[in-house]
Amino acid sequence: MHTPPEVVLLRKAWLGSKCLTLYRSILQDPCCQAFLHVLDLACTEAIDASDLLKAYHCLVATLADEAENAPATPVGDTWQDHLLNLILRNENPFSRQAEFTALTLMGASLREAASHDLRCLQFLFQLDASVVRQAVSRLVEEASHTELPVPYPPMVLPTWENLRSQAGKTGRQDTTEIRDLFARSRDWGQLLPRLAGWYASTGVGIYGQYQAFRWVRQGAQGELQGISTPDPIRLQELIGYQSERAQLIQNTEQFLQGYPANNVLLYGDRGTGKSSTVKALLNEYGQRGLRLIEVSKHHLTDFPELFSMLRNRRQKFILFVDDLSFEDNEVSYKDLKAILEGGLEARPDNVLIYATSNRRHLVKERFADRQFTDDEVRKSDTLQEKLSLSDRFGITVTFPSPDQEGYLAIVEGLARQRGLSIHPDDLRQMALQWELWHNGRSGRTARQFIDHLTGELAIKKK
Fold it and tell me: What is the CATH number of domain 212-399?
């Protein structure tokens, strides 16, 4: 009996999925699980039409969910694009070695296993929406004569050809070029050098997929969560404080180039752009391997765990602690002191700590701390211990509140960026009124005023 070509392709892919070695963890992905379930049911000797139909519809639903997170420029259909993305971010012995080791220096067995896996995965890639629908339709039609009360019409089967979102997501590495290369290739095994180069330049796993992260803890377990849409602020969009930012930029450049660099404390009044400056560094240097990890001050004791995770990674990581300060009854600042300098475990060379604070010395001080009013013999030692925390940061950059002219300069710069059509005198007068009615003079107040003015002028144009 002649076997239809689309059914032959299904069986080749099914067999290939059983032969994966290094990339076997890909099969644990929910879309892969749903896809392989369809293949398992389609490749059995006695096909159950009802089960196969149910599995196929579940697969389409799973891929529809995945399509919502598709990048702006998918390659192939939803299944094919998803499979390519899984390959590019998969962590396995080959991809991890490729981050640091030239392909020619890897063991021959490792290279051969990786090439073999890529050829097996190519069989799965060849199963596009049309092939799978035709194969399932044919198999169901043949089986339905005996199993289903009414023959199942093949044209009713849905497809995943056009599920993709047109909006795409940001905050991820642009993988269009290499995905397109795989889609055009006749032999994925020959692409091993290109894939190894990709891993070396972008990283693997979550570190290659995202540039921004947050550290979260659920119970006793902590983990990194990738941020799909990090703040898009860029350094050139920040007005004022050029000399202050220059210190941070210089330190970050040294860090990225592999030279010694310091942990940094950004101190200053609220709304002066401390946090925005740190976040803008990611958009400036993310393509050069910089990664930003947001860590709550309540998780400072997790830093050693983070160090262990990041130590042997190719990327450079900034652990970002925003609004860092301690009440006088908190003792976790002592843990931070040991982490910054003085602990037994050395901070990895690829990790720095950048923190922002509204307090110069981070720990809340009281006048009573400077008076010998209780039974403590060496109260001055306690005071010095609190004050010494900020000294553990190698660099402290101060962001003072702007004066009136500085505030207006920020307003005018933001108005130019937005292309607002308004007389300069009117702009200045309105900005000063806004400052009096709201949060005082700061970069944040200036931005909030410009946001309000932009919306107001847009409504008046209607």
Answer: 3.40.50.300
